[in-house]
Amino acid sequence: MWIPITLAAATFQVLRTSRQHRLRSVLSVNGAGFVRYAYGFPLAVIAMVMTFGIVGDGLPAIPWRFWPIIAGAGAVQIIGTLALLRAFDLRDFAIGTVYAKTEVIQVAIVSTVALGEPLRPLGWVAAFVCTAGVALLAAPNRLRDILGRAGDPAALMGIVAGGSFAVAAVGIRGASTSLEGGTTWDRALLTLTVMLGIQTMLNGAWLVASDRQELVRVGAAWRAALPVGILSLCGSAGWAVAVTLENAAKVRTLGQVELVIAFALSAWVLHERHTRAEYAASALVMVGVIGVVVFG
To answer: For the chain, what percent of residues have pLDDT higher than 70?
Structure first.
């Protein structure tokens, strides 16, 4: 089940990111990042009420270690979101994207160190193949230039974003699997709701201290922001369930098929022309993804 759930989560994430990026015309980086929490958290609470109140599922037991793990995961995910938006804001989308996608390797390392869940040898090879394919697909004509600009602000922000998302994914798995009792959905939903609550408070407090007018703008932009909250909740719920079921490195690697899907749609639906190098890069991504899923 974790495979179709991951694919759905990746799709929701693509849609959410595109809509969130459009909000940059009316909101700051912090404001655009805050939208996913401010509008996603109330929806998560409603899902909690329906699951544990109306349906009547029993609330999982929460051990003490759950709290620091999920608080840390929520904080670093905020950092990752802001870093990614900042990388895009630096006017070099390709560089930010390539370095953010080092998340595939970073999550495998963090999962090994923090949870003792390493990939098998062939899984590591496949993860590197996937990362290479992602880099080539994101910037097929600029790879040498991008690698030579590893110290650029956009590259550094991309690496920070990738590392933050890696730590967050592993943290979510660690927190969710620490819960006792309940179904996979119950544990994932509780984990996600607590994390969104923490993120709403942290990011909201920062905006109150630094730019209160931005909170007003976030509220005023509710028509454009509400879909971001809905898509964010759907995507986050999918990721939470997937990493509860399976190794975070496998889940996040499979999620990279979002690039291949976007590439395929541009070729088949929009009839855009692509080079042989781009088709080869797509094949590398798929080989890497399949390798991690099967051999990881």
So the answer is: 84
Q: Give the model confidence (pLDDT) of 219-271 as tens digits.
A: 888 888 888 888 888 988 998 999 999 888 888 888 877 777 666 666 666 56
Phi, then psi, of 283 in degrees rounded to 5:
-65, -40
Mean pLDDT, the chain, rounded, equals 83
CA atoms of 177 and 166, how far apart (whole Å): 17
Tokens (6 digits) for 168: 């967050």
Please tell me the number of Cα atoms within 13 Å of 52 on its side-chain side. Answer: 18
Whole-number Å distance between alpha carbons of 17 and 24: 11
Q: What is the dihedral of CA 75, 147, 273, 11, to 10 degrees?
A: -20
* Contact by Cβ (8 Å): 162, 255: no
AA identity, residue 195: M
Find the Cα–Cα–Cα–Cα dihedral 169, 172, 175, 177, rounded to 10°: -80
Structure tokens at 145: 């230039």
List the structure tokens of 143: 């790879």
